[in-house]
Amino acid sequence: MAKKYLCSFLLLVSLFSLSSFESKDEVINLEGTWHFQMDRNDEGVTAKWYNRNLSDVIKLPGSMAEFLKGDEITLKTKWTGSIYDSSFYFIPRFEKYRQPGNIHIPFWLTPAKHYVGAAWYQKEVNVPANWKGKRILLYLERAHIETRVWVNDKEVGLQNSLVAPHVYDLSAFLLPGKQRISIRIDNRINKINVGPDSHSVTDHTQGNWNGIIGKIALEAISPVYIEDVQVYPDVKNHKARVKITVNNSTQNNFSGKITIAAKSFNSESSDKTQEIVGNLSVSKLGENTMELELPFGKGMLTWDEFDPALYHLEVKLVSKEIKASKTVQFGMREFKIEGNRFLINGIPVFLRGTVHNCEFPLTGYPATTVEAWEKVLKKIKAYGLNHVRFHSWCPPEAAFIAADKVGLYLQPEGPSWPNHGPKIGLGQPVDQFLYDETTRMAKQYGNYASFTMLSAGNEPAGNQVKYLNAFVDFWKAKDSRRVYTGMSVGGSWPVVPNAEYQSRGGVRGLKWEKMPETESDFSAGIAPFKVPFVSHEIGQYCVFPNFDEIPKYKGVYRAKNFEMFRQDLEDHKMGDQSKDFLNASGKLQVLCYKNEIEKMLRTPGFGGFQMLGLQDFPGQGTALVGVLDAFFQEKGYVNAQEYSRFCNSTVPLAKIPKFVYTNAETFNAEIVLFHSGKVPLKNAVISWTIKNERGDVLSSGSFDSKTFENGNGIFVGNLSFPLADIKTATKLNLEVKVNNTDFANDWNFWVYPDRNHEISPSIYYTTVLDDKAKEVLNNGGKVFLNAAGKVVKGKEVEMHFLPVFWNTSWFKMRPPHVTGMLIQDKSPAFANFPTSFHSDLQWWDIQNRAQVMNLEDFPADFRPLIQPIDTWFMNRRLALVFEAQVGKGKIIVSSANVGPDIQNKPASRELFFSLQQYMNSDQFNPKNQLSFEVIQDVFVSPSKEIFKTYTKDSPDELKPNSNQNKVK
């Protein structure tokens, strides 16, 4: 119980330390009911609304949409965000979702109400008499976007920031007694255009809300006050440089003392410094900045991802007349770069990151409480990650406080995606705004240990290199507490030479047009770069929607996109398969993330990755790329313990040339290790085991003990396992462990008998649905149709082994269109072909680039043996292999190339063998009866519904040097 109260007390201390005041009696909390009125016609300023009572009420903190203020959603709603796929507005089957009262927007989540424009918020406050002579501040945390403030009939000023609190000095305006404060908030993108798709403003993510969502208060502080405190740790020399700015708002010169002292507060070990005293004088109406050196003793605690020890620094300003104090949170850490490596306190660190896109599906705006952020960041860390990039936005202060406590390295960004309209380096307002905003970020959040990296934003257009070189140089000279890059960009963007590290694409992905393996790495891709390379937005592997997620949307937003996709799936007679589609596509998604992450972990000299993402992205057409949903909750097909086997501070790895073998071969693997720990792995013994599906150990071994320093792809040893004793088709598993630790990883591989597969005389094998096939079926015979390359109905659907990338709407049906396969693994058709219900690596030579069949005219309850899962924007009923009764006979049809003549594809040959064995068994009894003609039509007639884009342009991020983005 005592520990519980202590934690609560520390939380309160950290929250109250955000501002400068002597006691909470000097604060008037302005949360609660405010008078309110929308200013649709921009008449409020001219009509002096600050002089009258507004007509409505609202609660703050909060947004207009949260309290149902604004307009109903229609097809003419003026969204903040690009829409590249206009097909929704034209496709006939979506007409019902375009009707008033049934509007379903597929591009992003749908808010309860929508409003872009000016709105007024007004409150009367009672100013205490004893506040006379004090400095009075109005503190507005996360107002969106532009605020103008009046006290009674006097305008105080205007502020525009997406990253920091709007703080107004009301000292000259407030008198004791009742006073009226009026705030006009405008969420339009006016002169300062950061880009309609910037996650700081766009409807793709949090939404372009109007309101104030964090702390709202009046604070009375000393007229001579501590304006700013910045702490610059020097870990090597056991000291910190403390820079203190004091302002004097009085007509008298000031002289007094500054004292500083630090004390740890969140770790098992405790430490505190001696109090340091300095003399300070400030001229009337002036400002003075002084620096003090704060030495630490032998017990100094450092901050990193493993031991996130923190200090509170208390700064006191004292004279005969004045007493003021300010407390800041900081950690003793140095985040530096040495060559192509990041270092935390001199120790190499590999960044395993995800992108946070400002997903807040209940509120539509960022959380401002430490508790909410701790919950999210702890979940991220549980999945083996140590880094978070905030795509084109900066989170509130609570996120930094939480990340400090959890131990994560953060890369907030300038709140801009200056593309799709605005451009950088051309003298547009966004140029100066990014300097102003990042300066506000450094002042407000610069002491937080987790704030280790900074980018100016995301994927720009314009005169990029010149502007971003200057931006990086400015920050390198100004503040050494973090490292700087230009902007986070794709692989086709120009390189910014002055960037301290590169956060860019181009070095990512899986080259699975060739046989999957785990031997290759990204060494060639990072070779041109002499600074750390952090791979930008890796992954983006899609999974089918989880319709069980829909009831979670109980707040401001509704998942109308999910509702639309669910109904469309039902309209295509597959509503009962949605959960199976989710789980099957999810297993493939995890497999892809595992292989891409492992490829980076085995690349020597790699700096890190920023995954897109651990969680779903609710916008840009609905990008379901996460193993977690937009609420940061599991979907059911993988958990943190499973995921962190291949994504962690230490990961055993295996270099395997292929995953499908015959029993005439030998399985060979080179075992390597990834380690990014606080200390080396000393005297580590790494062992391996090969088991079958029953859990029988077929072979095992271990390597001599060794000490492993931090690094990627560190050689451990080789293993070899002859496969001659494997007589039947078998799935095996190689597991590698670091003994006496929790670090383990594993890989499946498959072994098939090395034999020729003859065609059974009882089966008519054909590659054309010809007259003989019809005759055999009419006479009660069995037909195997290898229809590879012959499909017409479904020819437009492109299936790769890798699933849909990002989503087919944002990239206008760019292939692939399929997101894995659902396999009827319990069917006796697979008795001789070990498989699960989802795509795995043994399916690669069968599945990759195979044609699929569109079963649009088949019975509603028809379910194929192997069912490719279509993009949820189309929901076509697809098949790779199906069985049916035709006439008096039975048939299996495959659009995958499986048959007796297949060479060098053991899995394809073995699948054909298994299907033949099934056809010759008593269990071959297909459920559905089909006419010969309905099957024949698959190879004659095109699909009735073919996707049309209705627009010709393509997303700008596919063409960064397009005419739209060229410097003019």
Estimated helix fraction:
10-25%
Can you give the mean pLDDT? 94
> What structural class do you assign from the helix and strand content?
alpha+beta
What strand line-up does the widest sheet have? 3-2-6-12-9-10
Shape, principal axes of CA atoms: globular
Q: Give the biggest beta sheet.
A: 6 strands, antiparallel
The DSSP helix count reads 13
Radius of gyration equals 32 Å
Distance between the termini: 66 Å
How much of the residues is beta strand, in percent? 25-35%
Query: What is the count of β-strands?
Result: 52
**Low-confidence region ranges:** 1-24, 954-968
Please provide a brief summary of the model.
This protein has 968 residues and is α+β, with helices and mostly antiparallel strands.
Describe the SSE topology.
Blueprint: H1 2-16, E1 27-29, E2 32-39, E3 56-60, E4 62-63, E5 110-111, E6 118-127, E7 135-140, E8 143-144, E9 146-151, E10 154-160, E11 166-169, E12 177-186, E13 211-212, E14 216-221, E15 224-234, E16 239-248, E17 254-264, E18 276-282, E19 287-295, E20 311-318, E21 323-330, E22 335-338, E23 341-344, E24 347-349, E25 351-356, H2 370-382, E26 387-390, H3 397-406, E27 409-411, H4 429-445, E28 453-454, H5 464-478, E29 483-484, E30 502-504, H6 523-526, E31 533-539, E32 557-558, H7 560-571, H8 578-601, E33 608-612, H9 640-643, E34 650-655, E35 660-662, E36 666-675, E37 681-684, E38 686-692, E39 697-702, E40 706-708, E41 711-722, E42 730-738, E43 744-752, E44 763-766, H10 771-778, E45 782-786, E46 818-823, H11 844-847, E47 853-854, E48 866-870, E49 878-879, E50 881-886, E51 889-894, H12 906-919, E52 929-930, H13 932-936
Parallel strand pairs: 25-26, 25-33, 26-27, 28-29, 30-31, 31-33, 35-43, 44-45, 45-51, 50-52
Antiparallel strand pairs: 1-14, 2-3, 2-6, 4-13, 5-32, 6-12, 7-11, 7-14, 8-13, 9-10, 9-12, 15-16, 16-19, 17-18, 17-20, 20-21, 22-23, 23-24, 34-36, 36-41, 37-40, 38-39, 38-42, 42-43, 46-48, 47-49, 50-51
Helix pairs in contact: 2-3
